[in-house]
Amino acid sequence: MIRLTKVRIHQYKSIENALDMDVESDITVLMGKNEAGKTNILEALAKSRYFDREDKKFCYDPLPDYPRRRKKILDSQETTPLAVTATYQVSELLLEQIQKEMLLEAKSSQFSRITDYRGRHQVVESGFDYDLYEFWETYVSRKEPCLERYRRLLASIRTKEAFQEFYKQEAPSCSMEEKNALRNIEKFFRNPHRWANPLNEYVYRTYLLPNLPKFMYYDECYMLPSRISLDRLQNEEELTPQERTAKAFLMLADIDVDQVVHGGCFENYKSELETAQGRLNEELLKYWSANRNLRIEFEIVREELPEAQPEKKRRFFLFGKKEKAEPRYTNWLEIRIRDVQSMISLPLENRSKGFNWFFSFWVWFKAIREYEEVPYILLLDEPGMHLHATAQRDLVDFMKDLSAKYQIVYTTHSPYMLEELKEKVYCVENEGKGTTIYRLDEKD
Q1: Pairing, β 407-412 against β 376-380
Q2: Which domains, and CATH codes, for the chain?
Q3: Is the C-alpha dihedral spanning 106, 7, 368, 295 positive or negative?
Q4: DSSP string, 305-352
Q5: Cβ neighbours for 179, distance < 8 A, ≥ 6 positions apart
Q6: Buried b / exposed e along 328-342 (16+ C-beta atoms within 10 A)
Q7: End-to-end CA distance of the chain, in Å?
């Protein structure tokens, strides 16, 4: 419902001067030489609104992130430098929802959000800027006529505390209808972000922020392992990127980790696993044309752990009974890839790195698309670099399908990742004066 239309990266590593870039509604491709600054563009964007706020890797740090040649300028500044300004376009549907409540038309359907190096945000150049007097005149006349005598006074209130003080003073002389109407409009004054205009803050907090896309940066660290500890997936709060992909895989396979770990009989899962294997293989082969003979196989394995030594107990003659320790188990999900032509199966990690990367990528983003309602912008650094030409084209086809729901920005050196998207390609250069960018089809 909200899409990114353009970005300005103020300063970040090799980006010494402000870099402006338009963002396509579906796929944006960045090409350029090594060390031109392509990855820096993705990182700067990711850190401005990363999907996982606990991941410290994607927080701005002036020491490594600010351009080295400008470090002295940074040290002399009293204010925190700006990192990224992102400009967004609100969809017609969301625009209608906002106008239905606010009654007044927005000045435009765009707004910009600045992030500084401390991760603080500020909304600027917003089309959702309401005149307080015009709003309350319209709102009172059309929705709450009983508040006519308070119309001008409401336009002067800016905070929740000020509204509560006003209500406390006026409530004794108010009719029941007026009291109910005042309770209905209290939401417009909550203003937890302490904006100068509480109406602008209300629209941003209620409509824009919940629909604002988050950036997701994907690289090789998300590749699936061949063996996954189900116990860790169930009990650990901080999962590795590999384990997150494994969790996504289990979601696609409809495997309930809790039931597996605490269940008594794995035979009950056999038919479900076979059904899931067939479905996943069929769907994967829609995109993997390089080798149609490969099939995913997975199995749940329960291993008994060595018996723990029981605590020594004092025994008096024949009294007391030695208690037998309950057996303890660990549960694993094993993923193998079978070649039906050669009839040989190998652990996933023993297949080619290209296939493992493609399979992991497909699992992660298929799960995101099916199970996540959070709006994302996907940032992909050199996707498919281990794939040959046919598989890279397959990857582009999969990303085209993903782009129906998500915006995608990716970097590449491969001509096979460029040829179908020529009108969406931006060239990144660094000729010694910092990173610059231009659209390929607009080059003189």
Answers
A1: parallel
A2: 1-130+197-213+375-444 (3.40.50.300), 132-196 (no CATH), 223-306+327-374 (no CATH)
A3: positive
A4: PPPPPPPP----TT-S-PPPPPP-EEEEEEEEEEETTTTEEEEGGGS-
A5: 171
A6: eeebbbebbbbeeee
A7: 35
The answer to whether the beta carbons of residues 66 and 117 sit under 8 Å apart is yes
**Residues making up the chain, counted from first to last:** 444
Q: Which two tokens mark 220? A: 């090789």
Nearest to 48 by CA among 112, 116, 126: 116
| Cα distances (angstroms) measured from residue 254 to each of 123, 234, 275 | 41, 15, 10
| DSSP-based three-state secondary structure for 185 | helix
> Which tokens belong to 65?
């992130």
| Tens-level pLDDT at each residue, the chain (444 residues) | 899 999 999 999 999 999 999 999 999 999 999 999 999 999 999 999 998 887 888 999 988 998 887 777 777 777 889 999 999 999 999 999 999 999 999 999 999 999 999 999 999 989 999 999 999 999 999 999 999 999 999 999 999 999 999 999 999 999 999 999 999 999 999 999 999 999 999 999 999 999 999 999 988 778 888 998 888 888 777 888 888 888 888 888 887 777 777 765 556 666 777 788 888 898 888 888 888 899 998 888 878 777 654 554 444 444 455 555 555 778 888 899 999 988 899 999 888 888 899 999 999 898 888 888 889 999 999 998 888 888 998 999 999 999 999 999 999 988 888 877 877 899 999 987 889 999 887 765
Sign of CA dihedral 386, 390, 396, 402: negative
Q: Are 300 and 333 in contact (CB under 8 A)?
A: yes
Residue 222 CB contacts under 8 Å (≥ 6 apart), including other chains: 241, 242, 244, 245, 360, 361, 364
Tell how far CA 333 is from the center of its chain.
Answer: 26
pTM for the structure as a whole = 0.86
Residue 411 near residue 249, CB atoms below 8 Å: no
